[in-house]
Amino acid sequence: MCSKLGRFPLNISNIAIMASGQICDIDPKVLEKLKQFRFAKKSKGNAAYVFEEDEMYDDITVEDLVDVLPENSPRYIVLSYELHHHDGRNSFPLVFIYWSPNTVKSEMHMLYAGVKTYLQSQADVSKVSLSFGSDWHGLD
Questions:
Q1: What is the pTM of this model?
Q2: With CB atoms 3.0 to 4.6 Å apart as the test, which of 42, 50, 95, 131 could cross-link to 127 if both were Cys?
Q3: Who contacts 45 (Cβ-Cβ below 8 Å, separation ≥6)?
Q4: Separation CA 11–CA 98 (nearest Å)
Q5: What tens digit of pLDDT does each residue of 62-73 get?
């Protein structure tokens, strides 16, 4: 879907910005894929779902994920990372990431930032990381 807010086009596949009322409209297929990602059984490593590309990555390192992200466009990502507990258990918490490289035009950054909170609530992920620049501060 592609919609316009003011004079700035926003090309986020399956997410459309609305000019009034609701902030955005998310394709139910995207929410279903996110649900599948959220409840997938993981045995090790990190996994990621990148909204705009409608792509899931399994057993991916943070460095490899950064390599597949575009250098000139923001992205919304849900990352499931392996967490080792002191009692020997492993869990896979989710974190919602707003990725915005330094090279992104300010208009595009503002459009994505405006949708971030709504998309996070729809993804039902409470942990949030904002990443600006070319790397992931504190996520590895």
A1: 0.73
A2: 95
A3: 58, 59, 60, 61, 82
A4: 16
A5: 889 988 988 888
Assigned superfamily of 28-132: Severin (3.40.20.10)
Instruction: Tell me the backbone φ, ψ of residue 22, rounded to 5 degrees.
Output: -60, 140
Greater model confidence, 113 or 97: 97
Alpha helices in 1-140 (DSSP H): 28-39, 62-68, 106-123
Q: Concatenated DSSP letters for 51-73?
A: TTTTEEEES--HHHHHHHS-SSS
Tokens of 73: 């466009």
Taking only the tens place, the pLDDT of each residue in 103-136 is: 888 888 888 877 888 888 888 887 777 665 555 5
Secondary structure class of 117 (helix, strand, coil): helix
